[in-house]
Amino acid sequence: MVGNKLLKISFIIIGRNEGWKLTKCFQSVFQTIKQNSLSKYEVIYVDSKSTDDSIERVKVFEKTKIFQLTSDINAAIARNVGAIESKGDVLFFIDGDMEIIPDFIPLVYNESDSLKYNFVSGQFEDYYYSKKGVLIDKQLYHSMVSNERQEYTTGGLFLIKRNIWEKISGMKNHLRRNQDIDLGIRLAGINIFLIRRKELLAKHHTIKYQDKHRIWSDFIKGNDLFRSILHRENFKNFYQHKLFIRENYTLLLLLVNIGVILLNNNSMYGVIYLGLIGLRSIKNVKYSIIELLNIYAYYILRDFAVLSAFFLYWPQKEKNINYIQID
Hints:
Elements: E1 9-15, H1 20-35, E2 41-47, H2 54-59, E3 64-69, H3 75-85, E4 90-95, E5 98-100, H4 105-108, E6 109-110, E7 114-115, E8 119-129, E9 135-140, E10 148-151, E11 158-161, H5 162-167, H6 179-189, E12 194-206, H7 212-221, H8 226-233, H9 238-247, H10 249-264, H11 270-284, H12 289-312, E13 323-326
């Protein structure tokens, strides 16, 4: 077994039923290792009870340590398990539906000097697919002008020094959603910010974020309720308030409108809120009237759900962290 002091970077991949995307992910990781002549590394995969052939796909790649969650599952638990089982000084978290761009690594990391930043990520390009798996569009996720910028949130793709990760005890296991955003906010609260590089770090194989099946599936599962949990648990954090205003400005207007309506007994003030919802919908949907109506209804229902959840939704914080290693 390689000693802790000899390992520099741990590639930690998480996934559930990613199929061909997972194969592409692993191919890109090992290509990154080969192209950059990395020798002090490890590759870890944490599976969240996949029902497809994910485990068999990963077994093809030698020198990969495979773990599978056996009780509660979510991305936070999977990443925490990966970190616990890792030995690297640098943790590189990757979602199983992403392909890593090998040219990015030398910009932020080398084996001699380790990671050049405490917490860093890059640009990624979304490849959108239909339900039948046909590529329908692609676009860059981040709009960037400068070569790098400081951020207080992150996604599922980033590199972080182990001591920084451990400083805040990793991710919160009870957060089924927004666990990555919560990590970024808590780090920003202690003056450690994500550095976002302009260069492409990964291709992200997914479906449109505004896809009607995706948004309503999230809504029915209660995933949007974690917007409230995120705000409530970080209520004293300045950066959480900035994020909340940025992502939930229609909800704030809804609150103002409710107050005005109650004071003046005039429901006409609600037209302002509905108009802003319309503008937000048009901004985020470019394809059809049906999609526009779907997103319009979704934004309204989401605002009311998030508002209610702030007072009424208290998810269980104790999660069972059970997993096995697969040979």
